[in-house]
Amino acid sequence: MFASDFELVGTSPKFQKSVDFAKNVAVTKTPVLIVGETGTGKRTLCKFIHTSSARRAHAFQVVDCSQDPKKVEQEILGYRDPETGKFNKGVLEFSNHGTVVFANIDGLDENFQKRLYTILQELGDYDLDVRVLATTSKNLSKYVGAGRFYRALYTYFGNTQINLAPLRERTVDIQDLSRYFVNKAVSESDENLSLNFSHEALEKITSYYWTHNIAELKSVIENAIENANEGVIDLNAIELGEKKADSSNIDDDEDGLRLMSLKEAEKLLIRKALIHTSENRTQAAKILGVSIRTLRNKINEYRHGGQSYFVNLR
Q1: How buried is residue 87: exposed, middle or buried, by Cβ count under 10 Å (0-12/13-18/19+)?
Q2: pLDDT for 210-269, tens place per residue?
Q3: Same domain? 76 vs 222
Q4: Residue 258 DSSP code
Q5: By C-alpha distance, which of 67, 74, 101 is closest to 88?
Q6: How far apart are alpha carbons 259 and 166 in whole angstroms?
Q7: I need a labelling partner for 287 at 20 to 30 A (CA). Which of 72, 191, 193, 251 fits?
């Protein structure tokens, strides 16, 4: 499927299933929770749902719930300016007949979660007709179990859930996405450009393990366009960084495992353990068979070394 306005590009079965489900729920008013890793296009899919609905002519607002709790509450409910006394509408009132997205809803202040649930249940009492969507890269059911997320609010959104597969499970789409980003850049340029990938460049892009998914791919392609030589994006134009440099030579072993350096494997295992335990470092350390101090030191080592690998983990 190619929907150029929303960058929904791909033909892989998992992606198609998610898009088809989004089309079906777009015509309803039911709240939807969209789950996926960082950079998989969760907000883009929210926009697609809004534009595919009868609400397309009305407001589409996004609130990042990972911001300062007070700011998030003010964005949602509105606030009165202390100097002028003027009341500024929150997104729920401003977006009447439209759509509101609670992005990174896992970051919503725990004290505000129950209040928001009550407000959402009472929107009709205030003559507000708002479609609400939410996104997360976390396992909210584990957050609920750990007492970090209000169960009723999770149920409110989680009854209808769309999962977006990571790019490494959509390898068939990587080349199409790469060409899409190039064509989009060309169409938006004032210059008369003609850009093509070399075979080797496409192989390098396809074989790379895209940790930050489509967002990372887009960034790399935009940089490659700047490095293109005489209309050709070749190996030299594709900058994947130190940890990405050997990705074009990576093979799968007989068990289907991706070969990588010990350091890269260590980072990957730490990240998976943290995600699996909803960032509970004590539990993650037990799974990995190391002390909590060792785990903490490893995380700090990668962060202080300029790595963004754990940027979304608290």
Answers
A1: exposed
A2: 988 999 999 999 999 988 888 899 998 998 854 443 333 333 343 334 556 777 788 888
A3: no
A4: B
A5: 74
A6: 19
A7: 251
Give yes or no for residue 137 having a pLDDT over 70. Answer: yes
Instruction: Evaluate whether 231 touches 224 at the Cβ level (below 8 Å).
Output: no
Residue 101 phi, psi (nearest 5):
-110, 125
Q: Is 56 among the domain residues? A: yes
Boundary of a domain, candidates 139, 165, 191: 165
- Phi, psi of 169, deg, nearest 5: -100, 5
> Quick one: average pLDDT of 46-67?
96
Residues 44 and 184 in one domain: no
Task: Report the CATH number that the domain containing residue 76 is assigned in CATH.
Answer: 3.40.50.300
103 within a domain of the structure (yes/no): yes
Contact 92, 123 (CB under 8 A): yes
Query: What 8-state DSSP symbol labels residue 278?
Result: T
Between CA 270 and CA 291 the distance in angstroms is 13
Please give the backbone phi and psi of residue 13, each rounded to the nearest 5 degrees, phi first.
Answer: -55, -40
**For residue 48, which of 13, 8, 14, 97 has the smallest C-alpha distance?**
8
> Is 313 contained in some domain?
no
Domain count, the chain: 3
pLDDT at res. 190? 67
User: CB atoms < 10 A from the CB of 40, how many?
Assistant: 27
Same domain, 174 and 150: no
Confidence at residue 2, expressed as pLDDT on a 0 to 100 scale: 36
pLDDT of residue 309: 45
pTM: 0.73
One domain, residues 146 and 63: yes
Q: Are strands 32-35 and 161-163 parallel, antiparallel or unpaired?
A: parallel
**CA quadruple 249, 255, 261, 264: dihedral, nearest 10:** 110
For residues 28 and 100, state if they share a domain: yes
Structural domain harbouring 284 = 262-304
Q: Do 188 and 160 share a domain, yes or no?
A: no
Q: Of 135, 150, 165, which residue is a domain's last?
A: 165
Distance of alpha carbon 119 from the chain centroid: 26
Does the pLDDT value for residue 27 go beyond 90? yes
